[in-house]
Every structure is written in structure tokens, then in C-alpha cells.
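Hi everyone, sorry if this is the wrong subforum. Our group has a chain we'd like a structural model of before ordering constructs, and none of us has done structure prediction before. Sequence below.
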Amino acid sequence: MKKRHKSNAARLAAERDVEIYVRLEIEDQVIAEEYLLRNAIDRAINTLFGEIGSQLIHVEIVSFRYGTAMIRTKAKMLNQVRCALAFYGIHDKRECAFRIDTKTEEDNNHDNDDDDDDDEEEKSLTMPMD
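Answer:
Right subforum, don't worry. Here is the predicted structure as C-alpha cells:
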């Protein structure tokens, strides 16, 4: 049987950078320190994929403002990062939840426009804190 190889376009698409917005809430409080958020992201990925598997997943905090960070990862790692953050529920013996909002091309175009449409729905993945 012949092995099917990915096309160059598919390979390039998997290697492009993707940015998402992440906020960590611990017991209904938004974490306002960048190092705590970075620690929680690392622990979430480490918990789900182990020490060796987590070394393949690179996450970079691009910006941090008011408890929300914009993180960057490769497109091929996006599902792994989202799963790790979604399944992470306890940080330092306290219940927590990551709030994840995707950054889309519309957000970039909307930043350049002078029109503000408040009726637009945001795409987001949120995990409830029970």
C-alpha cells in the first residue's frame, strides 16, 4: 500500500501560528498575575500529556492584560492545548476553570473598523464551574 503524503498547503496550514484568548478563574476570581496563568497552562498540558508528551506542545504568552492572556501555538497543536485547558479543574487544591475565546480574522478586521456592532455573537468555549 502506498503512503499518502500531505500536500504542501496542508503542511503549511498545520505549521501556522494560531492565537487564542485565555482567562483562568479560580473560585470565581480572575487570576491577575501572568506567572500564575503560565504555571496553570504548563500544569494543564503536563497533567494531560505527561512530561515527555508535553515537551512537544509549545505555548507562548503573547500579551497579558486584565487577567486575560493571548497565547500562541501551532495550528496542529491547538486541539491538544484546548483539551488540556478544558480538562484542567483543580489548581493548588482549589477549583478552577479556563475561559477560552478564539481569535478570528473578523476580530482583526473589526479592530481596524470604526464601526462598533454590539450585536455580533462571540465564538467561545467555556467550561462551567460546578
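For your construct planning: The CA atoms of residues 5 and 88 lie 35 Å apart. The chain has a mean pLDDT of 77.
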